[in-house]
Design a protein that fits this description.
The complex is a heterodimer of chains A (265) and B (94). Chain A is built from twelve helices and eight strands. Chain A is α/β, with parallel strands linked by helices and 265 residues long. Chain B has 94 residues and is α+β, with helices and mostly antiparallel strands. In chain B, the strands form two sheets. Chain B has a two-stranded antiparallel ribbon with strand order 1-4. Chain B is elongated, with a radius of gyration of 18 Å.
């Protein structure tokens, strides 16, 4: 059974594109066929995060307007079996596509792929309306900051109003050291405020910057905590019962030893 | 922060994390209700008008707000409109 999942947040810069890339890649690594759709028309970025920017010929708007067949616009990621990208148009704007067209596109993609991951643009306007039109499920990305949580709350209300009731929360860029000393909202606080099921907590991890610099998703690398967190989210999307990561960074010597021997995370 | 700041020693009340949480809760109550400050101000004026018909109230000290003291309403949490109205004289002489 195929599923269309929209990755959304309301606020910009909280990690929607990174989450789309990483969860999508992790799903493909688990043997699923996945198509990543960049719904951020005019501000496309999923291609660079995935390192596929040089392979774009046609884009989403070309498909919708019938200038090419769907298959021609899909970029096959040669590194990961079963992973495809449908890039956004860069020279058009959000109004180039209608919710009805997006719904149709999602239906078509669902016939071929196990998972359709939609990278939603920031904001609550047309681009958002387009991205959620064909969605079966929403993953709401937020960070433990007042502005991001407030926007997430607004998005949750709008998703409900549009009939997308299957939604889960991802708390991104958590800094455990700050949570511990009380200078960052804890995961429980955010979940309590938003009253949505948690599907993942991703630590603030330098490796995400490093891997994004190179155009390689962190979830495809074995060594980063954030990559691991994204992989776990993918597993939970697949219905597996995976315990949440212990984000207490083992920065001391004993902690590192423990981690090496597999006692840590 | 003082040398013997008990809050800093034992609690997290002053920590920015809980400040953020409290501020958020309040902001979201207003966001979710779609209740603007003007609306609250109008409500406040009307409530005042009605109450002052019967009692003398201290308009300086009064406080009307939608607070995050949530109570269960059919299994769902709901915000509370609370009014703290100090009374000067119980009976207004007509």
């Amino acid at each position: 059974m195929s599923e269309v999942i929209v990755i959304t947040s309301g606020k910009g810069g909280v990690g929607k594109t990174t989450t789309s890339a990483n969860v999508g890649t992790a799903l493909a690594l688990q043997g699923k066929s996945v198509v990543l759709v960049d719904a951020d028309i005019g501000l496309r970025n999923l291609d660079v995060v995935m390192g596929l920017e040089n392979r774009i010929v046609y884009d989403l708007v070309d498909v919708v307007e019938g200038r090419c067949r769907l298959k021609q616009a899909l970029i096959k990621d040669k590194r990961f079996e079963g992973l495809f990208l449908l890039p956004a148009a860069q020279t058009r704007d959000k109004n180039a596509v209608s919710p009805e067209q997006m719904r149709k596109l999602c239906e078509t993609l669902k016939e071929e792929y196990d998972y359709v991951i939609l990278d939603c643009p920031a904001g609550i306007e047309q681009g958002f309306q387009n991205a959620i039109a064909g969605a079966d499920r929403a993953l709401i990305v937020t960070t433990p900051e007042v502005s991001a949580v407030r926007d997430a709350d607004r998005i949750i209300g709008l998703l409900e109003a549009h009939g997308v009731s299957n939604m889960q929360l991802i708390i991104n860029r958590v800094r455990m050291q700050m949570v511990k000393r009380g200078d960052m909202m804890a995961m429980d606080d955010v979940v309590e405020i938003l009253a949505v099921d948690l599907i993942g907590v991703v630590p603030d991890d330098e490796q995400v910057v490093v891997t994004t610099n190179k155009g390689e998703p962190a979830s495809a690398q074995g060594n980063s905590l954030a990559g691991k967190a994204f992989k776990n989210i993918a597993s939970r999307v697949l219905g597996q019962d995976i315990p949440f990561l212990d984000l207490n960074t083992n920065s001391n010597f004993m902690g590192r030893i423990k981690r090496v021997f597999g006692f840590g995370n | 922060m003082g040398f013997l700041d008990m809050n800093a020693l034992f609690g997290r009340k002053n920590k920015s994390g809980s400040v953020a949480k409290d501020r958020l809760k309040l902001v979201l109550i207003h966001d979710r209700m779609n209740c603007s400050t003007e609306l609250l101000e109008m409500m406040r004026a009307d409530i005042l008008e009605v109450i002052s018909k019967y009692v003398d109230i201290d308009t300086e000290e009064l406080n009307i707000e939608i607070s995050n003291m949530e109570y269960e309403q059919g299994g769902k949490k709901a915000p509370v409109l609370s009014a703290n109205i100090p009374i000067k004289n119980l009976k207004k002489v007509k």
